[in-house]
């Protein structure tokens, strides 16, 4: 699933960065941007699933609740730190045009880090798996329902912009921005993943994985149509209803799509091409942070492989395929280095020693 999120991310970023002229108004561009509403929620959703897996393993090994919470919170802080490091890299590569405020921009890595910290804090409040899953779902619903208010009538304007931006993505602007990743509503997807993760990794869940994933697919379809039905209701409780940005109905629609992806991923790995040798998506999913970090600079950054906002659909598509292939190769190099580091270092020493002697 993480590899599929990477693939979608490459596609969205490629067309957004490189399409120019009339192509930016094309149907391909519109569908590309629509599919772009999925990768970030999917990464956050999977962060919650991963938290459930890690905490469950630690619990079975006899780890104390405080130790589990501390491990999780420190991991979240590490991801948050990497988010700031990434922003520093982009700022330095963007000089002299990049404003210093970009250093404090709330990007997806920042939000994943904060979300994992929140998962650790909330997970410490309860002991049992059922209680954890229940609290996680309640938290996700609360985040989704509060989002429209925190972007309008409940805006914490008294906070400095770099702190308020973590609430609603206002950054340095007068209004919240749709291209940033504040806690509301994005962290809600991590709590949904946490709830599902506790179900998947329970003893009953491991013995009924096929039934659970099938139920996810059915529930996803039902929730998607429920979200569309709710969106057509005339009764609105929010002062400013923005479906594509803050609406709980859009949050629900994306949760529905992720549940369908859960079933599709299970089917892919159980009966599909995931059973046939090498899988590029599984490979990228193992190094998703690395391929995210590197591809940004070659799509949006100074080292973009194509002219920004200046390409046709065929050229942007070719660029997307090149970036995808390059990131698969980079991922392979990373895992091979990790798995065979001693042998690779020994080979370099054997190769370089005769050259140095000569």
What does this structure look like?
The chain is an all-alpha fold. The protein folds into 2 domains: 1-36 and 282-358, no CATH class; 43-218, no CATH class. Helices cover 72% and strands 0% of the residues. The protein starts with a helix and ends with a helix.
Report the span from N to C terminus. Answer: 51 Å
Rg over C-alpha atoms, rounded to the nearest angstrom: 22 Å
Task: Write down the domain tally.
Answer: 2
Helical/strand content category: mainly alpha
- Please summarize the sheet with the most strands: none
| Number of beta-strand segments | 0
Report the mean per-residue pLDDT as an integer: 91
Helix content: over 70%
Query: Can you tell me the residue ranges where pLDDT is under 50 for at least 5 consecutive residues?
Result: none
Order of helices and strands: HHHHHHHHHHHHHHH
| Coarse shape | globular
Classify the beta-strand content into a percent band.
Answer: under 5%
Number of helical stretches of at least 4 residues = 15
Could you outline the blueprint of secondary structure elements for this entry?
Elements (H helix, E strand, L loop, with lengths): L1 H17 L8 H9 L3 H22 L4 H29 L14 H17 L4 H23 L9 H8 L14 H18 L2 H5 L1 H23 L16 H23 L9 H6 L2 H12 L13 H27 L1 H17 L1
Helix pairs in contact: 1-2, 1-3, 1-13, 1-14, 3-4, 3-5, 3-8, 4-5, 5-8, 6-8, 10-11, 13-14
């Amino acid at each position: 699933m993480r590899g599929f999120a990477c693939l979608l991310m490459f596609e969205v970023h490629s067309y957004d960065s490189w399409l120019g002229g009339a192509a930016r108004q094309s149907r391909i561009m519109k569908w590309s941007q629509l599919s772009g509403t999925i990768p970030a929620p999917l990464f956050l959703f999977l962060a919650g699933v991963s938290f459930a897996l890690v905490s469950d393993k630690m619990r079975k090994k006899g780890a104390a609740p405080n130790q589990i919470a501390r491990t999780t919170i420190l991991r979240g802080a590490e991801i948050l730190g990497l988010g700031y490091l990434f922003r520093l890299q982009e700022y330095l590569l963007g000089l002299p045009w990049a404003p210093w405020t970009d250093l404090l921009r709330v990007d997806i890595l920042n939000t994943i880090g904060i979300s994992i910290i929140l998962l650790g804090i909330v997970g410490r409040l309860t002991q049992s798996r059922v209680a954890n899953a229940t609290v996680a779902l309640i938290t996700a619903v609360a985040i989704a329902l509060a989002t429209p208010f925190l972007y309008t009538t409940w805006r914490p304007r008294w906070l400095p912009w770099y702190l308020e931006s973590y609430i609603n993505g206002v950054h340095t602007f007068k209004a919240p921005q749709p291209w940033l990743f504040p806690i509301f509503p994005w962290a809600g997807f991590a709590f949904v993943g946490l709830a599902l993760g506790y179900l998947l990794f329970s003893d009953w869940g491991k013995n009924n994985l096929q039934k659970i994933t099938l139920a996810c697919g059915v529930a996803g379809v039902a929730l998607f149509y429920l979200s569309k039905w709710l969106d057509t209701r005339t009764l609105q409780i929010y002062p400013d209803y923005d479906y594509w940005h803050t609406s709980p109905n859009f949050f629900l629609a994306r949760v529905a799509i992720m549940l369908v992806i859960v079933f599709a991923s299970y089917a892919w790995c159980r009966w599909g091409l995931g059973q046939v040798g090498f899988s590029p998506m599984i490979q990228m999913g193992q190094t998703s942070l690395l391929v995210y970090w590197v591809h940004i600079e070659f799509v949006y950054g100074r080292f973009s492989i194509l002219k920004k906002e200046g390409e046709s659909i065929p050229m942007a598509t070719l660029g997307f395929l090149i970036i995808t292939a390059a990131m698969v190769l980079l991922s392979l190099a990373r895992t091979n280095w990790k798995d065979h580091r001693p042998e690779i270092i020994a080979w370099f020493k054997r190769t370089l020693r005769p050259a140095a002697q000569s």
